[in-house]
Design goal:
With about 240 residues, the protein is α/β, with parallel strands linked by helices. Helices cover about 40% and strands about 15% of the residues. A seven-stranded parallel beta sheet has the order 3-2-1-4-5-6-7, with helices on both faces. The model has no long low-confidence stretch (mean pLDDT about 90).
């Protein structure tokens, strides 16, 4: 069940939780490839990891995704952590530009589908695909109706793909508030609301990328686990 010598692809591995997953997998002896749409960030991440391989890949481009997997050896595990949270509009629903907010589904939902279609079907039996949603699926907040819908769609995608792709295992990770680079882009008023909420959580603090990465590593190693979504959220589910 160890990852020694296993080929692991971390999409979104140039920063945040993805970078922490890549580092943890390398520590487990895995042969890691990280992919992201920003070439400079990929190069920087590979340098900080001190190992592994980096590639530039736009997961919203199905032709590019198909070409990437066609020219690669199969991966034992694929962890999909990529998202475009800069597109989240924390606004009253009545004022939302719905067409503009369609982009929120582009990376984390449709991008994951592109990867599943062209990559997961080449994962050996018992290997895994791990998607990422978020606690918005379970604890909606004002100003995040579209993000809530997207997170819920990804969670149901896990179940559908686990059935479709068996014996490849498909699971998900559902993080709460994790202190990544995206936290810096949260509007001040929304961050204040989150900080107040965190103070009353069962684990009263923000989580770290390394804590979230533990869930991904377990799902790679847990050969009897499929169609599950692990919450890494400090007890938010049972708070308030």
């Amino acid at each position: 069940m160890e990852l020694d010598g296993k080929r692991v692809l971390v999409i979104g591995g140039s920063s945040g939780m993805g970078f922490a997953v890549a580092r943890a997998a390398i520590d487990q002896g895995a042969l890691v490839t990280i992919a992201s749409s920003n070439a400079a960030r990929v190069d920087d991440a590979v340098a900080r990891l001190g190992g592994g391989e980096g590639v530039c890949l736009d997961v919203t481009d199905e032709d590019a995704v198909a070409a990437f997997f066609e020219n690669r050896l199969p991966f034992d595990h694929i962890a999909f952590t990529a998202a475009d949270w800069a597109q989240v509009e924390h606004a009253n629903f009545a004022r939302l530009n719905l067409r503009a907010n369609e982009v929120l589904f582009g990376v984390r939902f449709w991008g994951a589908l592109n990867v599943a279609k062209h990559g997961a079907t080449r994962i050996p039996a018992g290997g895994s695909l791990i998607l990422t949603n978020g606690m918005a699926a379970h604890r909606p907040q004002k100003g995040m109706a579209i993000a809530t819908a997207m997170a819920g769609a990804v969670e149901h995608l896990v179940i559908g793909l686990a059935t479709e792709l068996a014996p490849v295992r498909v699971n998900g990770v559902c993080p709460g508030a994790i202190l990544t680079e995206a936290w810096d882009d949260v509007p001040p008023e929304f961050r204040k609301v989150q900080e107040e909420r965190l103070a009353g959580q069962l684990v009263p603090r923000v989580g770290t990328p390394e804590e979230a990465a533990e869930a991904y590593i377990y799902l790679m190693r847990g050969t009897y686990t499929t169609a599950q979504v692990l919450r890494v959220e400090g007890g938010w589910t049972y708070t308030g």
